Amino acid sequence: MKKIAILTSGGDAPGMNAAIRAVVRRGIFKGINVYGVRNGYKGLMAGDFVEMNLGSVGDIIHRGGTILRTARSERFKTEEGLQLAVSSLKEAGIDGLIVIGGDGSFQGAGKVTDRGFPTIGIPGTIDNDIAGTDYTIGFDTAVNTAVEAIDKIRDTAFSHESTTIIEVMGRDAGDIALWAGVCAGAESIIIPEAEYDVDDIIVRIQQGKNRGKMHSIIVVAEGVCKGEVISQTIRERTGLKTRVIVLGYLQRGGSPSSYDRMMGSQMGAKAVDLLLEGEKGVMIGLKNNQLIHLPFAEAAKDKHAIDMCVYNLAKSLSI
Ligand code: ADP
Ligand code: F6P
After folding, report:
1. Measured between alpha carbons, how far is 56 from 129 in angstroms, rounded to an integer?
2. Which ligand is nearest to the CA of 123?
3. Domain parsing of the chain, residue ranges
4. Any atom of ligand 2 within 6 Å of the Cβ of 126
5. What pLDDT was estimated at residue 214?
6. What is the C-alpha separation between 105 and 8, in angstroms, rounded?
7. Are 108 and 259 spatial neighbours (Cβ–Cβ below 8 Å)?
8. Which atom number of ligand 1 is nearest to the Cα of residue 129?
9. Mutation to probe ligand 2, out of 171, 176, 179, 220 (largest number of atoms < 8 A from CB)
10. pLDDT confidence of residue 303
11. In whole angstroms, what is the distance from residue 149 CA to residue 252 CA?
12. Region 142-253: CATH code
């Protein structure tokens, strides 16, 4: 293994740059050449490689997004796209590929490995929705961003005595909603992993009012429904003044937290080490605070599970 490449794919996530930096620096430290692939799998099919040096990853550890940029590509999912990607890698003389992304990106990386090219995956998505790991790079920063936003929204909700519904990202997973909801003290948290009951939400609002609290914060994961749907239901059922805030892409940007920088640094370096040890077709994960690696195929068998203890905790604290 003399030349390796790195790409970022799917939604960008804070901490991806720390991981890119770690891959490049660890690779150079181990005496190999590292190439960046611009624009994810789209750039891979186009052979858009750039040789990286120590300086190419200077001054990026604190930056959100990804310096290599990212993309989504339908063409890459086809046999023709996959073959094109593998031949671009071979033509450039590259021996191994590291992919930072979510589960979709890992499915692609698994297929590249199946076609004879070694790949390693680093979990990078704000959603924290990949089976096989307790943590994905970007989640901590996204939660902090959401909490900071909700804290601000709470000030105005208090002042105007309003019920505010905050819609957060997470695709089909409720982790961002759950963590942001607990950490920002939401009255109700609505996630795809648990049935929600409008009556229960209304009771909680009412309980607050009975003790003189005239405002309420409800966090809803985008994977359940639009915040507007919850807002309209509550308005119709109670006559209360409701507002909806969709945090949207705000949650994907911003300087990564220390934790995301640490995870990016550790996982990036481990990915290089694994390639050099001859591993392929595996993703890195965090389990019980230890870095592990497991085959893409094994991780794909499971579904990411949310921590229902935290959900139950939220229910018992927002009374
Ligand atoms: P994420 O990696 O964040 O889950 P996506 O699901 O959008 O994001 O996947 C990113 C890219 O990975 C897709 O645009 C596509 O090019 C590739 N990909 C996703 N699913 C597959 C698949 N089943 N087979 C091959 N490539 C895939
Ligand atoms: O996977 C990260 C994520 O931000 C999800 O939370 C969200 O559903 C999705 O990406 C949005 O994707 P796009 O960038 O295609 O709008």
Report:
1. 30
2. 1
3. 3-138+256-301, 142-253
4. yes
5. 85
6. 9
7. no
8. 4
9. 171
10. 87
11. 13
12. 3.40.50.460
- The tens digit of pLDDT for each residue in 64-123 reads 999 999 999 999 999 999 999 999 999 999 999 999 999 999 999 999 999 999 999 999
Give residue 179's pLDDT: 98
Pairing verdict, β 282-287 and 119-123: parallel
Distance from CA of residue 97 to its chain's centroid? 20
Residue 127 falls in the annotated catalytic set: yes
Buried b (16+ CB within 10 A) or exposed e, 262-286: ebbbbbbbbbbebbbeebbbbbbbb
In 3D, which of 304, 69, 301, 283 has the Cα closest to residue 176? 304
Orientation of helix 258-276 relative to helix 139-160, angle to 10°? 160
Rg (CA), the chain: 21
For 3-138+256-301, CATH gives 3.40.50.450
Residues of the chain with pLDDT under 70: none
- Residue 47, judged by CB atoms within 10 A of its CB (0-12, 13-18, 19+), counts as middle
Beta bridge partners of 217: 164
Closest C-alpha among 177, 133, 181, 146 to residue 14: 146
Instruction: Supply the pLDDT for residue 319.
Output: 78
Query: pTM for the complete prediction?
Result: 0.97
Residue recorded with tokens 């990106």: 105
Give the distance (Å) from ligand 1 centre to CA of residue 233: 35
- Nearest residue by C-alpha to atom 9 in ligand 2: 171
| Residues near ligand 1 (Cβ within 6 A) | 9-11, 41, 72-73, 76-77, 101-105, 107-108, 111, 125
Task: Give the active site residue among 127, 129, 140, 260.
Answer: 127
Domains 3-138+256-301 and 142-253 share a fold: yes
pLDDT value, residue 213: 86
Which of 107, 139, 169, 226, when mutated, tests ligand 2's pocket best, judged by the most ligand atoms within 8 Å of its CB? Answer: 169
